[in-house]
Amino acid sequence: MKTALILSAALAALATAAAAQAPELQQAQEAQEAQAAPPPAPVAAPAPPPPRAKGPALAPAVQAAQAAVAACAANGYKVTALITDSAGDPVVLLSGDGAAVRTQAIARSKIAAVMKYRMSSGEVAAKAKADPKFADEIKADPAIGTARQGGVPLMSGGELLGAFAVSGAPGGDKDEACVKAALAKVPLG
After folding, report:
1. Residue 118 backbone class (left: φ over 0; alpha: ψ -120 to 50; beta: rest)
2. ∠ at Cα 93 (101, 88), nearest 5°?
3. How many Å apart are CA 172 and CA 139, to the nearest integer?
4. 127-178, pLDDT tens digit by residue?
């Protein structure tokens, strides 16, 4: 039993001595690792996001959208005007005073038709009336759903620059008339 107590006391003394030296050993080991490790590589800044696709410049697009809303307002129509770039992303979305919020979604659907078929949304609607298979294709596209007149492609040198749509007048023909009146004042192609 005496031997066990002596052994316990000796082990406790060794443990205490080792614990006292542990911080010094750890610091020495960290210093060696720091010398051996290469410096961290510099972190490169992330690349900036790409700019929007080619399309009409902002200032004339704003003027054209305002002209379309004004042309419709002169006839008593409360509308939304949407102008996009060549990828179909909005450059300008203007909802006139009193325009129903759903006119924004309808304008987007007209733009989707123009972008997908590379023709006016009125031409898409006419083709859908004449071709049931085409009409089914349009209905199956959640971005379009229903073909409506009122969106036109913006062309420059035979290349699609974007699209321009108006929604909210009582009939797509009246929406398209506001687009054409605006483009007569502020050409975008």
Report:
1. left
2. 110
3. 18
4. 999 999 999 999 999 999 999 999 999 999 999 999 999 999 999 999 999 9
Distance between CA atoms of residues 172 and 18, nearest Å: 88
For the sheet with 90-95, list strands across it. 90-95, 80-84, 159-167, 151-156
157 Rama class: left (phi>0) / alpha (psi -120 to 50) / beta: left
Burial of residue 110 (number of CB atoms within 10 Å: 0-12, 13-18, 19+): buried
Beta partners for 153?
Answer: 163
The strand pairing partners of 152, in sequence order, are: 164
Q: Report the chain's C-alpha Rg in angstroms.
A: 35
* Closest listed residue to residue 104, CA positions, set 94, 119, 112, 113: 94
Q: Which residues, 6+ apart, have CB-to-CB distance to 27 below 8 Å?
A: none
Whole-structure pTM value: 0.76
Can you list the domains of the chain with their CATH numbers? Answer: 58-185 (3.30.450.150)
Strands 159-167 and 151-156 come out as antiparallel
